[in-house]
């Protein structure tokens, strides 16, 4: 998708964005991309929106207004709640203050971090970056910024925690939070009143690193985002580069990529089913899923050479052709896995304790799922048809027969069952393709130094837990001017407060188990 922007004036921006949602039904905020466009334009944001009825997508570009040393843009927090953490991310890395946002704190970096590292003029030298070695200072307050009648920037302090609030920290530790995530939770006895996520414990600055890399070098970073969706993440990055360059791939490449993506999805869902059970203290189901996941990894490893890190897709195709036994091994895997899926239900999914722990827990209706951009199985559990493979097909997903799995339960049990049923659909897709892989090139040769034409593009795929997208701004050089990745987990985590208010502490663990977020993907 080559981006052709709609531009509004600063003073009418909020009103026009509200019209896009209400009058034109652009009710899904896909992402907000902060960018330093250079000395002539300055700082600003790109908003990608989708109409969930027609699946039309548009992009809006809004430049920040400079007031003294500050940059401001009106917040869209009250139009799309998904903007909550998205705007905080832009503020964290670019220093743009969003007017009217009720919680303008850093999101990934420490509260005492100095500067905004994704600005082009940020000093990256070791002498300038003297990182604090002490514990991060805590505060019970946050800020809201607005303009007064004189056009001056005014700060209003809001209290996060009252003097009588009892605050429990879940994390940052790995068990039951799927990585180093910290959920600062206000509780009243056993009842949850607020959940404040703290991110960035393994933030590695990948988007900043990519600006200093050539395009082939950037590919290695995607596999480190989420080892359960390494194929999907790299697919999005090579996809946006190939679209920008106008690369035409062979049918063989399309077939193999589609099969590999679905093998990776099964890998992801198997670990999801296992860890969901383990989070609820059911060890046997975890062992069953890990046992069968080994079979999936064995099949992929024969071709890719990797198990966790799948360095397989490249710009123009694949790193290598499939293994001579790949077709045979994949067919044997599909035959083996089909009866095993029922076994996961027999051991855990249909257990009375599982139903009691997951049914009605973490409820999120259709309107809220869209408003909070709860993509993937989490949103499809409320009946939202949000699968990128159906709405914005790529490779062969519009050439094979398969069903988009949705539900109406809107709860954690429905999310669990959607993962179960999606595995059957992945097997259906693979079985339609595996005997029909055409002959042809597995790699379309590219120039030794890859340069992408000037412009801005967006490409997204359906990852294991939702939409994963990549924005690319090229200035015609061998390195990207700006790369922005839409992680699957950011909006999922941002919905925790809505999902868990009024529920019990144990429900936080159960809901987290059903959401399927992975912290390296979230933190980047």
Q: Could you name the CATH class of the largest domain?
A: Mainly Alpha
Rg estimate, integer Å: 23 Å
CATH-scheme architecture of the largest domain:
Orthogonal Bundle
Mean pLDDT: 91
> How many individual β-strands?
17
Outline the biggest β-sheet.
4 strands, mixed
User: Can you give the helix content as a percent range?
Assistant: 25-40%
Subcellular location: Cell inner membrane
Domain NADH-quinone oxidoreductase subunit D: 279-448, 450-524
Keywords: Cell membrane, Membrane, Multifunctional enzyme, NAD
Family: In the C-terminal section; belongs to the complex I 49 kDa subunit family.
What is the topology?
Elements: E1 5-7, H1 13-22, E2 28-36, E3 43-50, E4 57-63, E5 65-67, E6 70-74, H2 83-94, E7 96-99, E8 141-147, E9 153-159, E10 166-173, E11 181-188, E12 191-198, H3 206-210, H4 215-222, H5 230-245, H6 251-279, H7 283-304, E13 313-314, E14 317-318, H8 326-349, H9 352-358, H10 366-371, H11 377-380, H12 388-391, H13 412-433, E15 455-463, E16 466-474, E17 482-486, H14 489-494, H15 496-500, H16 505-515, H17 519-523
Parallel strand pairs: 1-4, 6-7
Antiparallel strand pairs: 2-3, 3-4, 5-6, 8-9, 10-11, 11-12, 13-14, 15-16, 16-17
Helix pairs in contact: 4-5, 5-6, 6-7, 6-13, 6-16, 7-8, 8-13, 13-16
């Amino acid at each position: 998708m080559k981006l052709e922007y709609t531009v509004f004036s600063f003073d009418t921006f909020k009103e026009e964005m509200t019209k896009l949602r209400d009058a034109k039904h652009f009710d899904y905020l896909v992402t907000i991309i902060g960018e330093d466009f250079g000395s002539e334009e300055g700082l600003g944001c790109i908003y990608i929106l989708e109409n969930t009825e027609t699946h039309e997508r548009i992009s809006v570009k809004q430049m920040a207004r400079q007031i003294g040393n500050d940059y401001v843009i009106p917040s869209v927090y009250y139009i799309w709640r998904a903007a909550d953490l998205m705007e905080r991310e832009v503020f964290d890395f670019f220093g743009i203050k969003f007017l009217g946002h009720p919680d303008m704190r850093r999101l990934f970096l420490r509260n005492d971090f100095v500067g905004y590292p994704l600005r082009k003029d940020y000093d990256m030298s070791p002498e300038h970056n003297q990182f604090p070695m002490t514990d991060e200072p805590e505060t019970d307050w946050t800020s809201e910024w607005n303009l007064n009648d004189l056009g001056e920037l005014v700060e209003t302090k809001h209290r996060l925690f009252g003097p009588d609030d009892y605050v429990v920290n879940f994390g940052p530790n790995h068990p039951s939070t799927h990585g180093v995530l910290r959920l600062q939770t206000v509780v009243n006895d056993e009842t949850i009143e607020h959940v404040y996520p703290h991110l960035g414990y393994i933030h590695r600055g990948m988007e900043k690193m990519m600006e200093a890399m050539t395009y082939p070098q950037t590919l290695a970073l995607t596999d480190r985002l989420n080892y359960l969706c390494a194929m999907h993440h790299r697919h999005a990055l090579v996809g946006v580069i190939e679209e920008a360059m106008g690369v035409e791939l062979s049918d063989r490449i399309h077939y193999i990529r589609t099969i590999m993506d679905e093998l990776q999805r099964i890998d992801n869902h198997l670990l999801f089913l296992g860890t969901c059970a383990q989070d609820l203290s059911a060890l046997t189901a975890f062992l069953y899923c890990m046992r069968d996941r080994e079979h999936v990894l064995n099949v992929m490893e024969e071709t890719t050479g990797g198990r966790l890190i799948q360095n397989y897709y490249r710009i123009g195709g694949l790193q290598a052709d499939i293994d001579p036994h790949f077709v045979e091994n994949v067919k044997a895997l599909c035959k083996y896995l089909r009866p095993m899926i029922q076994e996961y239900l027999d051991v855990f999914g249909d257990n009375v304790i599982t139903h009691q722990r997951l049914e009605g827990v973490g409820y999120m209706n259709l309107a809220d799922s869209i408003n909070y951009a709860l993509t993937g199985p989490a949103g499809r559990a409320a009946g939202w048809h949000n699968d990128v493979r159906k709405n914005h097909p790529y490779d062969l997903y519009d050439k094979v027969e398969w069903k988009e799995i949705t539900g109406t339960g809107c709860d954690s049990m429905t999310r669990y069952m959607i993962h179960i049923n999606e595995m059957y659909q992945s097997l259906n897709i693979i079985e339609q393709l595996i005997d029909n892989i055409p002959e042809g090139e597995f790699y379309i040769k590219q120039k030794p130094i890859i340069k992408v034409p000037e412009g801005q593009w967006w490409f997204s795929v359906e990852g294991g837990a939702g939409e994963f997208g990549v924005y690319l701004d090229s200035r015609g050089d061998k390195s990207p001017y700006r790369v922005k990745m839409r992680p699957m987990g950011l909006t999922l985590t941002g919905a925790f407060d809505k999902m868990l208010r009024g529920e019990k502490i144990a429900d936080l663990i159960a809901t987290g188990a059903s959401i399927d977020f992975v912290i390296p993907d979230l933190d980047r």
